[in-house]
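Re: that backbone. Tokens:
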């Protein structure tokens, strides 16, 4: 057993990320799939940020939030995917204790930040639909900046708090993590001391984040639905629903996956299903968000075509 508090006298533990090693035939195909997904994630999210920056039509409140969501998605995927790709190619799947804790810290930060960034976007859509005449006076630049800063700040607080309590535990010299990512549950599973406080704290933070964000989101969309159903024009109702569809799709995928993995415990759920679910919300969802928003927006698609055209023909 190793006590981290012993400082320089302690032996720093190392962990082994099993990942998908039980399927050796699939290592190369999975590497190619995840590499392709990561490339699409990086190009899609960074491209979305660039498109929003260069097109004045997209300098709106909604796209201010979306640019930060794209940044968070890119960072979230970058924290997880490179190590996943490495473990699919090499036989040595060890990860240092500091590397594992660092990955958890940043994954937690960006995961929590995305949760409340989507919540802020739901509030923005609610104000835009339910109170359009006072939208600009309500959603002021100061309020938008505070909502974004609050999302990042709360992500940092949650991440540092949980990381601190993980560091307070003692660990054996080596441990096997049956996943491809250093999540809280798998880190405490290789601890040699009682992780009760750390587990309870993680549970409380997770429940608070999920319940508070979903309450705001559900309330916002209930108010949106009531307002839209009161519109006399069918075309007006369809147009309003259409503007909210992208965000609602992103929320459904993100929270649906989290609820399935963490809030609906099932002892019969296999480790493979847990791994696939984890892949979905850490690797796949960051890819889907820019596609969901770009495919439904004419200005984004037009700007993208212009950027591609200029890259091949600078004289345009």
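Recovered sequence:
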């Amino acid at each position: 057993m190793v006590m981290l508090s012993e400082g320089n006298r302690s032996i720093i533990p190392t962990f082994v990320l099993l990942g998908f090693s039980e399927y050796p035939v699939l290592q190369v195909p999975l590497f190619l799939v995840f590499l392709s997904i990561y490339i699409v994630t990086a190009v899609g999210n960074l491209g979305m940020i660039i498109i929003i920056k260069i097109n004045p039509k997209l300098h709106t409140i909604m796209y201010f939030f979306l640019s930060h969501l794209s940044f968070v998605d890119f960072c979230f995927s970058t924290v997880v995917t490179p190590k996943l790709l490495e473990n699919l190619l090499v036989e040595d799947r060890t990860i240092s204790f500091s590397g594992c804790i660092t990955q958890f810290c940043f994954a937690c930060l960006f995961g929590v930040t995305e949760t409340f960034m989507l919540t802020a976007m739901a509030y923005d859509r609610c104000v835009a639909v339910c109170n359009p005449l006072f939208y600009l006076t309500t959603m002021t630049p100061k309020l938008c900046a505070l909502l974004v800063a609050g999302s990042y700040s709360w992500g940092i607080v949650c991440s540092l708090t949980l990381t601190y309590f993980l560091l307070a535990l003692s660990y054996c010299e080596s441990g096997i993590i049956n996943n491809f990512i250093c999540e809280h549950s798998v880190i405490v599973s290789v601890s040699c001391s009682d992780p009760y406080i750390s587990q309870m704290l993680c549970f409380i933070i997770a429940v608070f984040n999920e319940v508070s964000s979903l309450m705001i989101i559900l309330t916002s969309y209930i108010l949106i639905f009531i307002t839209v159903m009161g519109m006399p024009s069918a075309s007006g109702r369809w147009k309003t629903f259409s503007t909210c569809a992208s965000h609602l799709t992103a929320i459904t995928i993100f929270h649906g996956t989290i609820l399935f993995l963490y809030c609906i415990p099932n002892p019969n759920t296999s480790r493979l299903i847990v791994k696939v679910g984890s892949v979905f919300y850490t690797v796949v969802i960051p890819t889907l968000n820019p596609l969901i928003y770009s495919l439904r927006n004419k200005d984004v698609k037009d700007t993208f075509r212009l950027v591609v055209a200029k890259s091949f023909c600078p004289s345009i």
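The chain has one domain: 11-312. Strands lie at 2-3, 14-17, 94-96, 170-171, 174-177.
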